[in-house]
Amino acid sequence: MSTSRKNQIFIGTFIHSTTLTTLEYLHNTAIAVSASTGKIIAIEPECDLHKAKTILVPKLGWDSGPTSVEILSTQKDYQFFFPGFIDTHLHASQYPNVGIFGNSTLLDWLNTYTFPLEASLSDISKAKRVYSRVIKKTLSHGTTTAAYYATIDVTATNLLAELCLERGQRALIGRVCMDQLGPEYYLDESPEESLSKTKECVDFIREKKQDLVRPVITPRFAPACSFDLLKKLGDLAKETDLPIQTHISENKNEILLVKELFPMEKTGAKDDSYASVYDAAGLLTEKMILAHGVHLTEFEADLIAERKSKVSHCPCSNSAITSGAAKVRWLLGKGIVVGLGTDMSGGYSPSVLEAARHAVLVSRHVAMGGDDEVAKLSVEEVLYLGTKGGAGVVGLEGTVGGFEVGMEWDAQLIGLGRVEDGGEEEEGEDGGNVDVFGWESWQEKIAKWVYNGDDRNTKKVWVRGRLVHERK
Ligand SMILES: O=c1[nH]c(=O)c2nc[nH]c2[nH]1
């Protein structure tokens, strides 16, 4: 996919979240994107192709020749631009295992399926095959930003960063730190080694002198790290101001293990909760991305809110490996910033849209479980979590996740299937599972997309103005 050096104008319908519960629909609108920065520099209402060429281009001071400005205009009532999705939690290294988890639960799933696959990616040609594919696949589903876990291997982790840069996907790249619990063949030898290998990856990414791909400190989860390692990573986070990602309170046996491994005498914490272990190690900061949080206690949720740590909700994974139903409304009510994660391959799908629809359904199970109707999430809310919420989780609020002047053009063009009078789909338009008859409101079209859409609806994807996926 080529890097566009041209200024760009997009014309059509733009849909994005303005608040948790509100989608804004901007019809007959033009958005201008600067070639040099990839940022939105103008949003022009009531604008068609003619007005864009004759009024907007001169107003922006752009040369109107075709070598300077590229215009994409779609006035079809079944196509719209939407912000790129933000996947706040996924394991690039586990991609070959999507859908393979049997009836396992977290701790046996890790030993049976996950550690052997991750260890095998020290074979760099295998890592290249897997990582190239996961980037291509997630881009094809509209994921413009991904918070990736790689493996413990430095070379393979650095390769993931390079491939993201090459393909143009915005990413956080984490070398996995683990010095206990894993099999002998897949462990850091000591906290010191874990720290120095992490620093190698951080330096490698920083030397690239760009900010599309950033390093993230990644203690796998408390049970896989000695407290010494957790503290060292907490100190590194403080020194470097880098983001951190880990798992928390996903599975009941995991929580029991944390209590066993981290008694208060060892951590110096005032209690033996999972969140307090991270807090005692200096990891519970506003840059921390906590995946899952299914079984958090009131005390822990309050602590997370106080520390301004973020939560990645991973409903597909939580259902697939039988972890439980996270109470997202409750977390949001505490003021915690929440985004969506596919959590491949605990999660079975590379699609944030799938995570969004699963988030809706899981919230209904929370409601049915007695938490009352308020627990139910709407289509609008899960789309917020997949875009603006996600941006807040990965530290990119105000940069991506919406259509505002100054934000970067991380976007997707969505096309639904338009059914003609004869009952056939409009020629040349593959709407996948989504049939639009023409009488639906825009709210209804969006709901149809959320419940039935997939990558067949993701026609084009841009990151920072660069076209990074086009569906042929
Ligand atoms: O869903 C998960 N995936 C993982 O790889 C993992 N490691 C620890 N805890 C985990 N949970």
Automatic annotation (TrEMBL):
Keyword Nucleotide-binding attached: no
Cofactor(s) needed: Zn(2+)
GO molecular function, one term: guanine deaminase activity
GO biological process: guanine metabolic process
Coiled-coil residue spans: none
Keywords: Hydrolase, Metal-binding, Zinc
SUPFAM superfamilies registered for this protein in UniProt: Composite domain of metallo-dependent hydrolases, Metallo-dependent hydrolases
Domain of life: Eukaryota
Domain Amidohydrolase-related: residue ranges: 82-468
GO cellular component: cytosol
Annotated catalysed reactions: guanine + H2O + H(+) = xanthine + NH4(+)
Pfam family, one: Amidohydro_1
Enzyme Commission (EC) number: 3.5.4.3
Pathway assignment: Purine metabolism; guanine degradation; xanthine from guanine: step 1/1
Role: Catalyzes the hydrolytic deamination of guanine, producing xanthine and ammonia.
Protein family according to the UniProt entry: Belongs to the metallo-dependent hydrolases superfamily. ATZ/TRZ family.
Name this polypeptide is given: Probable guanine deaminase
Species of the source: Podospora fimiseda
Lineage, uppermost ranks: Eukaryota, Fungi, Dikarya, Ascomycota, Pezizomycotina
